[in-house]
């Protein structure tokens, strides 16, 4: 297992190198001058030239990329042209918010999608199965931005149950910084008021982000459970007189969970892609909002730094999925 993990991690540097080269070429193909955007529309030629020189944009592209790789090898992701601060510091600031949002969305995906699939499999062909399939497929019918706006309209405008945007209410102070995750930090510091506020603000964006992942998770759970429940060992469990809850959970869901884990790993990419839209809709101060603003400003360092971080996160999560296979099924060896 240790050798397998090391082999997978050894693939990360060349993957990041390929991503950095692709993004570097792609961003520099855009027919616009970031120096003019940074300097402002009323800046003169001398001011634009000064900005271009300050950020090394006056050098040949090959030299710019070589300098970037040299800095990257030392853990330096460059300086943001928009915020004028180190990209690494910006990522430390914005990444916890995105991690909290995607983590909550993944929990919602598992907590809602898996039970929906189980209900559909157990009541196959019945009313519960039809309702479960209708609920899961309904998630695919709504574009994520439409669903987000609809949730704001219902729960903020009409019902006035949940806030419109942000991580905390206006005037509330963040909890003492430990992890950067407001829910976790509030728990660790015993700040009940901030915990309640952060959970309330997290509810709508997390559920909106989870929407696209619910249907694949529910459908995979249902189809796999249907196959498992027809196996001989499940019939034996019924013959022994085991309680239904034990048969469905211990013998059914546990054996059906490996394909579900696979689909959950694939949904990480969907969540990381959807987080850009969700953070814009709900003004969530995370990497999605940071990178979109960087794209609009042609902030090369911010764009590449965000992409490299998300690539590394995706690789590590898929590695964790593979390790989980061996934990759930001891027959799997690497």
From TrEMBL:
Keyword Membrane carried by entry:
yes
What membrane topology is annotated for this entry? Multi-pass membrane protein
Q: Subcellular localization, per the record? A: Cell membrane
Q: Which UniProt keywords apply?
A: Cell membrane, Membrane, Transmembrane, Transmembrane helix, Transport
Provide the primary localization: membrane
Highest taxon of source: Bacteria
Q: Does the keyword Magnesium apply?
A: no
Q: Name one GO cellular component term.
A: plasma membrane
Provide the transmembrane region boundaries: 101-122, 134-159, 195-215, 256-282, 302-328
Q: Where's the ABC transmembrane type-1 domain?
A: 95-321
MF terms in GO? dipeptide transmembrane transporter activity
In terms of Pfam families, this protein maps to: BPD_transp_1, BPD_transp_1_N
Say which family it is in. Belongs to the binding-protein-dependent transport system permease family.
Protein's recorded name? ABC transporter permease
Which organism does this record belong to? Candidatus Segetimicrobium genomatis
């Amino acid at each position: 297992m240790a050798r397998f993990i090391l082999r997978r991690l050894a693939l990360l540097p060349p993957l990041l190198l390929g991503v950095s080269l692709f993004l570097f070429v792609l961003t520099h193909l855009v027919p616009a001058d970031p120096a003019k955007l940074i300097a402002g529309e009323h800046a003169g030629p001398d001011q634009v030239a000064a900005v271009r020189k300050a950020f090394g944009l006056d050098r040949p592209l090959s030299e710019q990329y070589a300098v970037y790789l040299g800095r990257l090898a030392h853990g330096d992701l460059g300086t943001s042209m928009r915020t004028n601060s180190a990209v690494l510091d910006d990522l430390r600031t914005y990444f916890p918010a995105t991690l909290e949002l995607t983590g909550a969305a993944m929990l919602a995906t598992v907590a809602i999608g898996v039970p929906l699939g189980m209900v559909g499999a157990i009541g196959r062909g019945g009313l519960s199965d039809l309702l479960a399939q209708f609920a899961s497929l309904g998630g695919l019918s709504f574009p994520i931005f439409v669903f987000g706006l609809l949730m704001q309209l219902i729960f903020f405008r009409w019902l006035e149950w949940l806030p419109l945007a942000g991580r905390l209410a206006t005037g509330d102070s963040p909890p003492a910084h430990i992890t950067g995750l407001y829910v976790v930090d509030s728990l660790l510091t015993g700040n009940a008021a901030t915990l309640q506020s952060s959970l309330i603000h997290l509810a709508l964006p997390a559920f909106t982000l989870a929407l696209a992942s619910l249907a694949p998770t529910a459908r995979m759970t249902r189809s796999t459970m249907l196959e498992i429940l027809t196996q001989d060992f499940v019939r034996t469990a019924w013959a022994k007189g085991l309680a239904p809850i034990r048969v469905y959970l211990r013998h059914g869901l546990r054996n059906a969970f490996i394909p579900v884990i696979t689909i959950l790993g694939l949904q990480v990419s969907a969540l990381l892609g959807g987080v850009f839209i969700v953070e814009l809709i709900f003004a969530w101060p995370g990497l999605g909002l940071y990178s979109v603003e960087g794209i609009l400003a042609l902030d090369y360092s911010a764009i590449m730094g965000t992409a490299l971080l998300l690539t590394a996160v995706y690789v590590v999560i898929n590695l964790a999925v593979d390790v989980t296979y061996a934990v759930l099924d001891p027959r799997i060896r690497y």
